[in-house]
Every structure is written in structure tokens, then in C-alpha cells.
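Still learning. Any example?
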Amino acid sequence: MPTTVDKIRRALEKRDGIAEEEMRPLADSFKVEVQAVNQRLDEAVMLLRKGLRSEAIQRVEMTPNTLEKAAELEFPEWDEWNEILQFLAIPLPPKLNVDYVAQINEAIIDSLPLEALLRRHRRLAIAKAPLSVRLRTLRQIARVDPANSVWGDDVETWEKIRLQQIDSELRQALEREDSRQLYLLNEELTSDQWRVKPSSRLIEQSQFAAEAHVRQNMERELGLIAPQLAEAFENRDEATARSLRTQWQASRSHYSIDVPASLQTQVMPTLRWLEDLDRQSMMESERSIAVDRLESCLDGNHSPEEIQDAYEQATRFGEPVPDALAARMQTLADEPVKRAKKKWTLIAAAAGLLVIVGAVTAYSLIASARQAKQRDDYVRQMEGFVSENRYDEALSFFESVRASAPEVTSLPKMVALHSQAQKAVESETKREERFETLLVQANSDDPALIDESLIPQLEELAKTDGERARIDDIRKRKQSYMDSQAVAQSDEMIEKIGEYWTTFGELQSRGNTNANRTALEQLRTSVIRLSNSYPLRSDAATTKQEQLRSSLTATIDQMKRTMQAERQLADALDSLSAARSLEQYADRLRELSTRTVADSDFIEFDTVIDEEDHWGNVDRTNEWLERLSQRLENGVTSGEATELVESAELLRNRVAPNPVFDAMPKFSDSMEEIRRRNSILSETFNVFQKHPLRELVTLPAEGQDFLITKTYAEDNADRMKRSGGLGVMVVSSSTGTVRNRGFDGPLDDIKNEPMASVNWLIAQQNARAIDFASLWEQTFLRLVVEVMTQRPDLDARVKEWMIFRLLDGATRGSERLAAAIPQTMAMLNRRADTFNRWYEPRPFNGKLPTEVESTIRAELGTAYPRFKDPLSDYSKVAASRLSWIGFLTKTEGNQISYHLRNELPEVDGSIFVAAPSRDNAVETSLNKIGELNQGHVQLTSNPVDLIGGRPLFLFPN
């Protein structure tokens, strides 16, 4: 059953477009699956952080196996899919937490024994896992099996390869500004497992971005907790606030970097509130313990000193003890007075009779009452000093009372008040000492060394106006120094930014190259790091820094888009150039028309794709040329000429103009000429077949040659052998009529000419039928030469007549031959009256007149070689083809250019495009749009036919 990722990839591969109704449910399904995997990974990593490795591994290996599911959810088309989702306004699904996947994998590797590690090593090799994953396993094997040095050697070899990969991955991550990947690479580079030490350059390049990633993650996590803490404080929800504080402290401990001031300010009231609650709770707990101890002392048999100490501990929190305990303490304090009163009362009763004793007793009672009143006054006065925090006066008063009435200072109440005052004075002394110590630490003659971080503690300790004035003096000195430093740093930073602007301008002028983009990114990193170099910069300097950073980012982003578009365009051009046929070229055009690269308008897709049928007519033209080549190679017969003329006409009707026919302007005339040759050949040889000469033989007599019919000679053979006067029927006209002429016998020396030569010539029609069909001119010329040279017994006048008839037929079937032997034909026509009287008797002469022979030999000798290949011009054209050499493209400046499929052909020629005819869109026009001359392509300036995407066809000159 296909997974969600399989469905996503299939949807991305569709050629007919991607619909929102198809992508939205896939995005929702992917989101659910990623959230489930991330949830399981979160739980496992939390267990890892608690040191529960086995439980964490068990958690991820529960069905369904989390790591296997995570592997399914990673696919290379992620970025492309996200772009499509953004375009369709579909919420992006969360990303898989690959950082947690890596942590779990490391934990699994650390827990495996050697045998299991080796199995895992083999599985990773078979699965072609990433080198970083396989290297972790190999390192663990090397640790578990240190006796085998092979593992260590392999680790070093793999680490060298991995460092090369990291170098490449680092550049790509910097280009993409992928902070998470940069963080992972930095973690890998800074681990203590490397045997081959990574270069400092790699570490430095990744470190800054890694720090940014850590800070980004921390700010994201704390940014979620901070508003919840603030809300809990507003609602005074102590339980929720304490839980959130625990999360806050855990995140801070995990990242170990300073919290941004904005977040710290947001949560500070809540944290202080919780700290106050903690202190209050602790004080209440300690007070409760002290009160319980006081009650235990009062209940038990404890000395007054122990009771007094317990009382002091219970009252040191600034709150009175419970009323019941206070009453018991007062009772305990009043017992000595009561005992004294009771004692004096008994004495007075016993000595009531004695006046003197009575008087003394009365005086004692009055003095005792006066002492009690004075003791109470001392206690109230002591209480007043303590309650008003006049502790120094309280101690002085206590010492004065000790000197005048020591028994009063031993009262529990006085002792407790004295202890409270003494502790308050000691506390104030410690506060002053602490204040002075911190003040010394914070202050310095060099304002740069003043420690502002101690001022909040000093302000908490300060109680007097003098102390506050001293703190204010330190703060003002530090602020004055910071202000001056801010001005200096701002000026220096602004000057530096100006230098960076100059560098930026220079880099902008260098164009879109990888090296230039890397330089711009390094410049942007330098601009960003100005914040660290100049922490006291002014807002104006920060604004200028941000302006430069924004300009750099916009330029880099534009450069990335441009370079990506250029890469896409280059890939598209390479894809089109690699098409093996025009049909495949059309398919790739249709495919590219649905991609973003089509937005560059380098090809007019709508126009060109509709012209595919016209490209087929180029193939039809080449197929016709192939047929023509085959016909010409074997000699064009009359029937083949007819077929070629008809097919050429059909092709002309379909493709016009057509450079093939432009290169053969008289092709149809030539083919028509060949079509007529059969009838011309028949007519020519019919003349010989029907001519009287075919039946005539020669009768030599009386020193002359007479012509008689063969039949007559055979019928009168015996008679003509007789001696004496003989009457013979001899030919007397060109029509073959005869008359009787007397001769002296015997007449038996009959020669078989001209009948033999004429019949021989008639036989050549069939014997040389193929030659006549393929080599018309040369075949006739050879016959003429053979008549001249190989018929020695033939009369010259008959020869001349036969030559004339042969050349007459040959020139009627070949205008080129007629043009090649004009003098011969003119001379023969002038001499027609002479050789047409072939029937007249005369002495035998088999030699042509010198004028005739020399003229014929001269012109035929020149003409014969020229007709070795009479259709050679057409053969050259037929051997040529309309070659698909490339296609037109449109540049960014809307200029027409061209893109070649392969290297340029070595031959020169004209370049054509196949376009709809202006008169009839169904028909095709092969329009010339340029020349290929000595390896240089020159396009015409006429823009009508120059449309991006049209295939270019070369036709050799």
C-alpha cells in the first residue's frame, strides 16, 4: 500500500498539473504522521536526558518503529513540495525533528555490543546510508574492538572523506541559510571523536551560524513560556507559575546562553513573585519550628537561659509569638516578684506585733512597689527603642540600666529586647560591610572597569541617602564612559559600514557567480558580526547596519533566484538539446511549459508546441530525398521519373517554399524529359525498324555499290551467278523503290551491309535497355562511336544517316546533350541532303568525311565524360538532408539567440525554420532565417520567423 510520501511524490510527477484538492489532504495526512513521530521522539529524548537510555530506545522501537517511520517521512522533494503548498496557500506541515533522530541513533549505537555493531555496520553499508551515520557506527566499533587496528585506519580514511563532504554541505547550507543544518554540522565538527582534526576554517564557518541556531531555538522555546508565565502572574496562579518556572529553568540550563533582555524583562515580575513566595514560605517554616521549640522549652524542665534563647529565636521573624505562649512567658517573668511579695507578707504577719518590724516591713513593701514600677518603665522604654528601630540607643539604655539596676536586665523581657537590638545592630554592621565590599568590587578609577552588574545588589543593600549617592556617582561615571564609548563605537562602526558599502558595490558589479555570491554572503556575515564588535553602537549605526544587511540579503536572494533560474534554464536547454527526436523535443517542450522555468519566456511555448505537425513535414522532405537518392543511384526509369514527379508535386503542395526544390529548379523538367525518353527511344528505333535499309544488301558491280533487297538477292542467287547480260532490280530512291538495270554476269559477290548494321543497331534497343534508362546520353554516344569505328563495311553515307538518327533521338531526350553537341547537330542537318541519298550507287567508301568525323569526335569526346553522371547535381541534393541542429531561444533582453544540439557541422549551408504558411496554416513553409558560414551562424534581422523554441534545420549549400 503506498505511503503518504509515495502519494506526494506521485502527485509531484504528474504532467497535467497539481490541484489544491489533491494536495491539501496529503498535507494534512503528512502533518498528522510527522506530529506523531515527533511526539514519540520528544518522549524518547526526555528519557535520554534523564539518563534512561534503555527506556528511550525501547520507546522508539515500539510498534510502529519510530526511526523507520522517520526514514519514510524524509524525501528529497521536500523543498519543491513546500513551494507548491505555499503557492496553493496550504498551511505548511511541521518538519521532522532530525536532531532528535540523530540523538536516538547515537544512543542506539552506544548501547550495541560488538557483534550487533558489526551487523548494523553491514546493514548501513547495504542500505547505502549517509557517511555520517556509518562513521558513528564505525567509531563505536573501533572503541569496542581496539585490538583491531583496521577499524582505526578505516575511521581515519572515512573521516577525511567526511570532512570533504562537510566542506560541500557547509557551503550549501550557507547558501540556503539553513541554520539547523549548520548547527548539526558544527556539532559534528566540534565533537571529541575526530581522529583527523577538522580545519579551523570549517569550525569557524559553522560556529557563528550554529550559535545563531542555538539562540533561535532558545528564543523560540522561551518565547512560548514567557507569556504563559506573565499570564500566571496576573492570575496569581501559583501552581501553574511554578510549573512554568521549572520549564524556563530547564531550557536555560539546556542552552547555557544569555536570555534576551526582552524575554528576561517579561518574566522578571513573575520570577520575583515566586522568589518572594519561596522566602515567605521558608520564613514561616522556620518560625513555626522556633515557636514549637519555645513551647517545648516551656513545657519541659529547661533553664531560664534555654527558654530565653528559644524565645529570642521565635521572635526574630518580626512577628509576636502566640498569645498563649506570650502569657506563659509573662507569668514566668513575674514569678520572682510574686515570691518576693509572698515572703514579705509572711514576715509582716509574724512580726505584726512588733512596731519596728512593722515599720520596716511597710517601708520594704513601699520600696518594692516603687522598684516594680521603675522596672516596668525600663521595660517599656526598652520596647520603645526596639519598636522604633533605635537599636543603638536601645543597647546604650540597656547598659545604663545594667549599671543602675542589674536585676532589671536579667528579666526575660529585657534580655529578649536586648538580644533583638543586638542582632539588629550586628545585621546592620554586616549590611554595611557587605555594601562596602560590593562597592569596592563595583567601583574603579577606570570607568571601563566599573561593574554595573553589582549595582542592583548595592541598591538593595543601600539604606541611607549617602549610600545611595555613592551608588549614583558610580552609575553616572559608568554611564558617561558608556556614552563616550557609544559615540566612538558608533562612529567606527558607521565608518566600517561605509567600507562595506564600497565592497558591496564592487561585488554587485561582478555579476552572478558562485564565487561572487559566496563573497557577498561572507560580507553579510561580517556586517551581522558588527553587532558583537560594537555592542555600544547607537540606533543610527544599527539602522545603517540593518540597511546594509537588508540590501545584501535582497541582493543575495535575488542572485540566488537569478542563479536558480539560470540553472533551471540551463537544465531546460540541456534537456531540449538531449532530445533524440523532434517528437521527444515536443514532449519535453510540453513538460517544460508547466514548470516555473516557462516564466522566463525563453521559449514561446504556446506557439511552438502547436507547430509540431510542421516539423513532421521536414521528416517527409528527408524521406523524399532518400527515395530520390535510391532512384538516382540505380538510374531513374521513366516510371520512376513519373513517381518522383508526382511525389515532388505532393510535397511542394505541402511544403513551400522548400530549399530542396529551390536547389533543383529544373527537376520537374528533367523528370519530364526522362518520362518522354521511352517514347523517344521507341520512335528513334522504329525509324530503323521500318527503314528500307533494314532489308538491303550491297551488290558491288562495275566499280560501284548498288543496293538490292535481301529477298531479291536470295531468290535470284543462281541466276546472278550466270555469265552474260543480267537484269537486276536495284534500289533507286530513299523510299526503297527499285528499277531494273542491266549488268554483265556473274554477280555473286553480295555484301550483307547495310542490313547487318541496321539490324545490329535495332538489337541494341533491348540489349542496352538498362543503359538507356540510366545513362541515356552516354549510351547513345557509345552507339555513335561504335557505328563510326566498328562497322568498316558500312557505307559512309549510311553511317552518317545512322549517326544523325541516333543523335537526333538522343538530343530530343536530353536538352543538356543538345547543348553539348551543337556543331555536330548543325553540321548533320546541313548534310541531310547528302546522306539522305544513301541509295545512289557509288564506289565503296566506309570512311566519314573528314569534316564530319573531326567535328563529331571533338564534340562527343568533350561531351561524353560530362554525362558519366547526368543527374549528378540532383544526386548531390539527394545526398543532403535537412538536419535538426538546434533551436531558437529568447534571451533575458528579449533578443533572439540560438542553442545548438551538438557541435556545428563542418559544411556550410542555409538555416531554416518550419512554420505555418502565411496563406494556409495547414501547409508548411521552410523559411530561411540564417546562414552557417565557416562555423559561424548568422541569423537574419527579420523578426517574423524568429520565434523562441522553433527547431533549426540546416540544408547544406
